[in-house]
Every structure is written in structure tokens, then in C-alpha cells.
Amino acid sequence: MEPSIPLRIAYAFASLAVITVYGLLLIGSMARISAKVQGRVGQPVWQPFIDIVKSSGKRNSISHGVMFWLGPVFRLAGGVGTYMFVPAVLGSVVFQNFSMSGDLLLVMYFIFFGQLGMALGASEGGHPYSAIGVSRGLAQMTAFEVPFALSIISIAVQYGTLDITKIVMAQQGGFLNWTLFTNPLAVVAAMIAFLGMSGHNPFSVVIAPQEIPIGPPTEYQSNLLGMLQTNRAVFNGAKLVLYMNLFFGGATNVPVMVVKTFLIYFVNIFVGQAFPRFRTDQAIRFFLGVPTLIGIAAVVLFAF
Amino acid sequence: MFEGVKGFFPPPYDPKEPVDFGSGKFLKMWQGPQHPGITGNMSLELAIAGDTVYDCKTHVGYLHRGFEKLMERRLWMQNFPLVCRIAVPEPDFNEYCYAAAIEELAGVEVPEKAKWLRNLTLEMIRLASYLMWIGGQAGAFGHGTIIQWSATMRDYVLDLFEELSGGRIYHMYIIPGGVRSDLPEGWKAHALEVMDTIEKNLDDIELVMFHNAVFKLRAKGLGVIPKDWIDRYGITGPNARAAGFRRDLRKDQPYLVYDKLDFDYVTAEGSDAYDRAKVRLGEMYQAIDLIRQMLARMPSGGEFKTALPNPLHWKIPAGETYVKSECTRGEYGFYVVSDGSDKPRRVVVRGPSYTHAVSVMETLAKGQNIADVAGLMVSLHTYPPEIER
Q: What is the interface pTM, i.e. ipTM, of the complex?
């Protein structure tokens, strides 16, 4: 029996709370791993929680108009929206979220909605660093979207659906049914796009401290920064769950979800620690090169 | 690079186009003085259009403490805590040049052992300074791992300095007539152990940084210094050697015990940020080798300093001299004038940073991508305190 609407809303909040906490723990633990690679002790795993509490507890004393205030709101809405339409755990009543037919398209929209909203808000700040960061962010986003979209088209053709739940169900019955093995080209294209989406090296020029500090969030501090930090956790969690569902067989329980998403996120850190960052033009050229060709090959392979 | 279609798209960068902020095409942007992409306390006033830098003006003055003037009001010996602060990451070159100038003016002989010890500290600080620099260069391109590794290695060298002189950053170890102390018990073994550790780490850095496709993409072709600029601008050190010039004061006009050590020029041909980094990496290995050579060949006994007159009443005979050494950035010199009193009449410091961070930087930055400005600046290796003495 379908749960009632109030109950579904309550489940959604619970699911959101879990993914937020998990996202923050993931950020904390990855920071810790990065520190180990660099020969440091690193921050405590719970440092992201402290940061959010600290930022959110401060009053914002500047304003650059309504759009400036709405930037982080759009960003958070994008993160929450992305997560809310992705089934985090297959078959779970609580973690099923609002997954429905055609949710893959909606999720793709939400992924970019947040970034566009943030760009709009950050530009209102009037700071040249924000404007340059926004320009870089949007240019890079446009570029990594190409292999990502091709990958999505490929798996949509492969499974004949845009319903994430159906795509996950199609991958059940053994790990050889995962998209990773049935459509490896799409996975490669999407994973490269994932690096760009996550903003880690070598695709971190958008918020590069040395090249231009600190990109779009230059003028965001206190509670607005707290909102952006919260979104970082939610959005990270949402993207990881989406990737897990589309390419790595999804999860039928929470521990499997944790292991799979941790490993997917680890790819970012693994690559990020070994590489410096591309310039924006170099990143664009990169995404529109080999990853796009791989994406096209993945589409061609299943379309014909 | 996308060149555009003539008559349809405007050219992406026209160096002759005047910067007119009223046109709405250009944006003025400050990089520094508080900016992770700037070396030390200076700033760059950039005129940019899109991602391209059209004009660059350097601004110093954030750190001016008037070192040279202050030195005229202090006793000769009282200036040692001052000179070391002119180039913070490598104070020993200042100590050496100032001490050597006093010795030359006062006719003080330096014992052989002291020369070895001075030479040893100069190579140690060269290594420490380059370790700090390589982290900055990697960091300017966003490679945070390297800076953490190299900062740790630099700390090991600073540990050695602490054991030797009591100070980690400012050592004041070199004094007129020699050095303050001999090597402590067990120091030599510890130093050799540290050199092994650093050498191993440099191998890792070379692998991760210099064989990295993205680093190559960023650094190769960035900030190429044409060969004819070297003499025109007075460029020295690794910046000149990366352009193929075999110039090194340690070889060309040997001082201390460099003529007794086996080493060669480290050069490259590309003259870009990548080759400058390669030259500095080569000189780090070279510094380790020189330190090992010195520890093996240094006389075990002997005086390490000459008895001096009472420093509070020490009057240096009238005269003038220019003493120079090869620091990590190139030729580093002290012009010292004495009028026969107990204080210097005039001290002028010649550091390579003025040329590299002001004249060369302002010219090279034009036409660069804004994201490359930090990498370019670090690749020239400059210290602002040395510009504003």
C-alpha cells in the first residue's frame, strides 16, 4: 500500500536528513584521506558539521539585492530537488523519495538548475572575482554536460526508459548486469563528466584559490555560506546516489549504498590529489574531445 | 588556439589595442596584496578583457621597512638581525654578503673551516628556499599535494638550522670573521639522513609534477623569456639558465669553497615556466649533492671564527665594496660604504626580484590568461621584501 502524502513528506525529510549527514561525513572523511596523501593529520571527520553550525550562526550584514540572497536558495533547491527524485535505496519506503516515471530528465534539470541559480545570485555581488568564477563555472558546466548527456541518452536507449527505478531494477540479478559492464563506454564518459561536475582537480578552476579566489561564492559568508555548505553535502550525496543507480547497479540497502557511493566519490579524490587543475579553456577542450567521442560511441553502439 | 575569422570575429587578443576602461570591454582587477596567487606582499593591477590580460602594473610598498636607511643608524654588528629579514625564505645570503663586505673593508681573514661552514649553510638554505618555491609553483596550478610534501621537507632542513644556530627562519649564523659555532655533535649524521629523505621525496615530486600531463599543459610555453631579454633586463639565476645561459656566480666567480666542489651549470633551453621549474629541480638535487660533498670534505678541526674587536666600538676603515653571491633567484649583492665610523655610511642591496617581479613580470603578463598569472609570477621566483628595502 502506498504511504499517505503526509507520511511520504515525513519520509522525504528523514531521507534528506540522512543524506545531509552522510554527505557531510563523506566530505569530512575525504578531506581526511586527502590529508593522509599529503602527509598531514588533517581535520576531524566532523569538521564540516562544525563549519555549518558556525556559518549558520552568524548574521549576514551585506546585501546586493534579492537575487543575491536567492542564489544560495536556488543552489540548495537544486541539490534537494536532485536528491528528492532519485531513489536512494531500491525497495525502501523511506529512501524511495519521489522517484517516478521520467524522473531522470527532471534530475538532469535539477543538477543544472542549482548551478544556474547560483550563477545568477553570485553575479549580483558585483565582485569581479564572482563574475569571473561564474563565467568559468558556466563554461565548464556546458562542456561536461555534453559527455554526461550523451551517456544518459545511451543508457536511456539501452534500457528503453527514463525512469531511474526501472534502470536500477534492470541491473539487478548480479554485478555483471550493472551498466558498468553492459555499457562501459557510457560509464567512462559519465565518470569523466562526474569529475567536472564535482569541481575537484583537475576541474576546480571555478573556485580556484590561486587563480581567482574564490569564484562565485566570493561574497557569500555567514548564514548564506552555511546554506551553500549544506547544499554541498546534499548535492554530493544526490549525485553519488544518481551515479550509483545509473551505472553501478543501485543499492537495495543502506550499507551497500554507503560503500558504493564512497567508492564513486573516492575517484574524485584519487584523481584530484594527483593532478593540478586545467584552465577553463583547457577543460572545455578536454570535455569536448575524448569524453564526447566516447559518449557518441556509447550512443551509436546502442542506437543502431 | 581559436584564432577567430577575420572580418567576422574580432581577434581574441590584440597587444596594440589601447586599454580604455570607458569602452566597457575591460575590467580592472587587483591580484594582491592579499591573494594566494601572489608571492609575498605586493599586488598586480590587471586590465583584463575576457580571460586575457591586456595590461599589468606591479605595486609594491606594502612591506617597506626602510632596511637600508635603518642600517645607517645602527652599529655594524647590530645590522645582522636586520639584513636577514630582507629575503625571509633565504636570510643566509644576506648574512654572507654583509659579513663578507665588512670583512673586505676591515681586512678580516676568515678561517678555512668557517668558509666550509658558510658554504654549507648557503646550500642548505638554497635547498630550503627551492622546496618552498616548488610548493608555490605547484600550488599556483592547484596541485596542493606537492606543497604539503615540500613544506614538510623544508621543515626538516629548518630542523637542521635550529640544531646548528638555534633559529629556524632567521639564523644569524654567519658573522664577520666566520660563523657563530661549529657543527653540533651528531649533526652531520642527521644532515645526511635528512638529505636522503629529501632526495627520495624529490623523486616523488618529479614523478607527480614534472611527468604530469596537466602540469605540462599549464607550464609549457607559459611566460617564455626571449634570449635577448636576459641582458637587456639583467635577468640572472635560474631564469637566465632556463634560457640556455651558462651563468652562475658559483662557477663564474667562485667564492667560499665552491672552487673545491664538483658541480656544473643546470640549464635548459625552453625558457618557459616548465623549464624554469626543471632547472630549479635540478639545482635542488645539486644542492643535496654539494651538501654531501661538503660534509665529506670539510676539515674536522680548526678555528671557525676570527677574534674581532669589541663590536660596540668597532670602526670599519673608510672605503666601499660590492660583494655578490648566487642566491636562488640569481645575483644577490651588497654595496657597502664606510666612512670610517662605527656605522655603515650606505648600504644598497641588489636583489634579482626587482627585475623579475617588476620589469619582467609587467611585460610577460600581457597576453596571458588570467588563470596563468599566479603560475607565471611564481615561476619567476621573487621576494617582494627584497624589492623594497
A: 0.90
